[in-house]
Write a structure and sequence with these properties.
With 322 residues, the chain is α/β, with parallel strands linked by helices. The chain has eight helices and 18 strands. Strands 1, 2, 3, 4, 5, 6, 7, 14, 15 and 18 form a ten-stranded mixed beta sheet that branches. A six-stranded mixed beta sheet has the order 10-11-12-13-16-17, with helices on one face.
């Protein structure tokens, strides 16, 4: 099992803070008892982050209450950044247009206030941002600092237009306008590369974030379907971490949102060696997983396997048609 501190908050239960241990290839992130972890002074070369796992519904107030509780829990662990999943503020049944707002509207401003009052950075993705016309929204990943200021926004590039084998059909492009910018932003937990959900399947985006935009931490908020999550979620996250030598923080929607929509769950934090260092005890509970971004580990992995020096431009190789 991966070593991690997790906070589990199922409805009507007492907050639990167990720790699990293992020996990853390069460095262990936690040791000792829970009290020792909570009271210890973090090394100057590391910083704590958290990934949320939750079940959003078609109720803005209820979802905000859950997010506020998780933000308080994350701040109590010393986390400097809390990542929420796609559709964190609202998860309906094809009615995203109805609730879409501008980023200076009351919903997003409420989360900016939450970040300021909790003294924690928030990764909010994706948000139903009002689109270019009355028939489209943007699926937007918003990063808010601990003073409540929006530091960066990324509009999801890859649309989920898929017939899931054994599942349902989806056509996100029918109501969502695709973005066209690759976005990275500096933060107290390193340089962040922003993505949303289906973007996970496109390694070239993550390669750009690492090698052209200098990302150290990739943020992957998602609402993966139960079918695709079971088959591909973990392996894709670990692959993106390994091939970019970045931490990956993957906040996840989980469980049934309504009669038609169900998400896989399993919020994870993966280190640059591909080791899972943050994970809740199960993939269906509401709670946060906490781990430490160790900058010396990033440097060590990149120095020992310098793929940034070994990469060749795509036109380096001659191609042939067979």
């Amino acid at each position: 099992m991966p070593n991690c501190l997790y906070l589990l908050s199922p409805p009507n239960s007492i907050l639990c803070r167990p720790i699990r241990f293992s020996h990853p290839p390069l460095r262990s992130h936690f040791s000792g008892t829970v009290a020792a972890v909570s009271d210890s002074v973090m090394a100057s070369n590391s910083v704590r982050v958290a990934a949320a796992q939750m079940t959003s519904i078609n109720d803005l107030d209820s979802n905000f209450a859950t997010c506020a509780r998780l933000a308080k829990e994350a701040a109590s662990t010393g986390a400097k950044l809390l990542c929420f999943p796609e559709n964190f503020s609202y998860y309906g049944d094809g009615d995203g247009l109805r609730v879409a707002e501008a980023l200076d509207g009351p919903v997003m401003q409420g989360y900016c206030t939450l970040a300021r009052e909790s003294s924690i950075w928030l990764s909010l993705g994706g948000f139903q941002e009002k689109g270019p016309d009355d028939k489209h929204i943007y699926n937007t990943h918003v990063v808010v600092d601990d003073a409540g200021n929006i530091r960066s926004t990324y509009r999801k590039i890859h649309m989920f237009d898929v017939d899931v084998p054994g599942g349902s059909s989806y056509k996100e492009s029918s109501f969502t306008e695709a973005g066209n910018r690759v976005v990275a932003v500096d933060s107290p937990v390193g340089r962040l590369g922003l993505t949303v959900c289906y973007d996970l399947r496109f390694p070239d985006l993550h390669q750009q974030l690492r090698f052209q935009h200098g990302a150290q931490v990739l943020l992957q908020p998602a609402a993966f379907t139960a079918v695709t999550g079971h088959a591909h979620w973990e392996v894709l996250l670990r692959a993106r971490a390994i091939e970019t030598q970045c931490y990956v923080i993957a906040a996840a929607q989980t469980g049934k949102h309504n009669d038609k929509r169900e998400s896989y769950g399993e919020a994870l934090i993966v280190d640059p060696w591909g080791t899972i260092v943050g994970q809740l005890p199960d993939r269906l509970s509401t709670g946060i997983s906490v781990a430490d971004i160790d900058f010396s580990l990033i440097e060590s992995v990149r120095a020992k396997m310098p793929i940034s020096k070994h990469r060749k431009p795509i036109d380096y190789w001659k191609s042939a048609s067979l």
